Amino acid sequence: MSEPTRSRIFVTRKIPGAALDRLREAHDVSIWPDELPPTPEQLLENVAGCDGLLTMLSDRIDETVIKAAGPQLKVVSNYAVGFNNIDLKAAREHGVCVGNTPDVLTGATADLAVTLLLAAARRVEEGAAEVREGRWGAWKPSALLGVEPEGKTVGVVGMGRIGKAFAERMVRGWNMKLLYTSRSDQADVDESLRGRRVDLDELLAESDFVSIHVALTDDTRNLIDAAALSKMKSTAVLVNTARGEIIDQDALVDAIKGGRIFAAGLDVTTPEPLPPSHPLVGLPRVIILPHIGSATDTSRCGMAEIAVDNVLAGVAGRPLRCEVPL
Ligand code: DGY
């Protein structure tokens, strides 16, 4: 009996858990050894001759990469729920399937959006900096006053899996009124969370807290620009755990400096990493995290299992466990 064919797989970073062992047993796997991603040139070199790629959200997989891999490339399995780093048109044209890792990171990412909302609203970053830098003076009745979510209005931009999990937390935990944008009506959200689907302008004008949960596409790039920020309440808190490019960051700097919104909590920025010299860094009432929405052991190991399943299915010519429609 002939041995099953071993495919060549390139994995662009070490990932947590034991899932890669399953891939190594079945195929010839090379794993990029560094913590820093391969440069574009190193990526092109390493993908050559591969049948499958397991990629990170920070790897740009465009037509040049797909062509550099060669015509045998069958699958690009992204270790993320988002796939804006992959040129889907090029994948379709070259007959390459694309996989992602939904569901297992929904709760962790929603939790981080709640964390950022509370941290920004209660000025946690400024308070912690006072302690760290020896500026903690007397207890002052009016120092570091923040805003409270209880009973206020939360606006969820994009009611997908993560938007819904975030909305559930805010409505059930803080008895908030829910407004949301969505491509379609969501009867379950309206019923179980007393949500109301509105257009973006109404959501921005009415919400005390706005959280972004849409995918990055040509339609959502700079969705929250100067005009959008000017519609928000001056007491509003803006949270983004989706993708940095959805917010016009220069406009956000102006809005915070000008007191046009109260605070912002960001897990995603443009670029990533955001240089420490960027005007957003160190701005009072802005808290920035280094894209850690899915950074729990449970989520990252779950993502690894799905990403590996996607590669195994893709190189075998089977439908992927989680396949991105092309
Ligand atoms: C994803 O998987 O797309 C998330 O941004 C990771 O935090």
Short recap of the structure:
This protein has 326 residues and is an alpha/beta fold. The protein has two domains: 8-102 and 297-315, 3-Layer(aba) Sandwich (Rossmann fold), CATH 3.40.50; 106-288, Rossmann fold (3-Layer(aba) Sandwich), CATH 3.40.50.720. It has twelve helices and twelve strands.
- Total tally of structural domains: 2
In the CATH hierarchy, the architecture of the largest domain is 3-Layer(aba) Sandwich
| Succession of helices and strands | EHEHEHEHEHHEHEHEHEHEHEEH
Shape: globular
Strand content: 5-15%
Per CATH, what is the topology of the largest domain?
Rossmann fold
Total strand count, please?
12
| Class of secondary structure makeup | alpha/beta
Number of helices: 12
Which features would summarize this protein structure in a list?
single chain, 326 residues, alpha/beta, Rossmann fold, 7-stranded parallel β-sheet, 12 helices, 35% helix, binds (2R)-2,3-dihydroxypropanoic acid
Outline the structure in words.
By secondary structure, the protein is an alpha/beta fold. The chain has two domains: 8-102 and 297-315, 3-Layer(aba) Sandwich (Rossmann fold); 106-288, Rossmann fold. 35% of the residues lie in helices and 14% in strands. The protein contains twelve helices and twelve strands. The chain has a seven-stranded parallel beta sheet with strand order 8-7-6-9-10-11-12, with helices on both faces. Strands 2-1-3-4-5 form a five-stranded parallel beta sheet. Helix 7 (161-174) links the parallel strand 6 (153-157) and strand 7. Helix 1 (19-26) runs parallel beside helix 12 and helix 5 crosses helix 7. It is globular, with a radius of gyration of 22 Å. The mean pLDDT is 97. Residues 57, 80-82, 105, 109, 291, 293-294 line the site of (2R)-2,3-dihydroxypropanoic acid. Residues 9-323 form the D-isomer specific 2-hydroxyacid dehydrogenase catalytic domain. Belongs to the D-isomer specific 2-hydroxyacid dehydrogenase family. GhrB subfamily. InterPro entries: D-isomer_2-hydroxyacid_DH, D-isomer_2_OHA_DH_cat_dom, D-isomer_DH_CS, D-isomer_DH_CS1, D-isomer_DH_NAD-bd, NAD(P)-bd_dom_sf. One of its GO terms (molecular function) is glyoxylate reductase (NADPH) activity. Residues 115-293 form the D-isomer specific 2-hydroxyacid dehydrogenase NAD-binding domain.
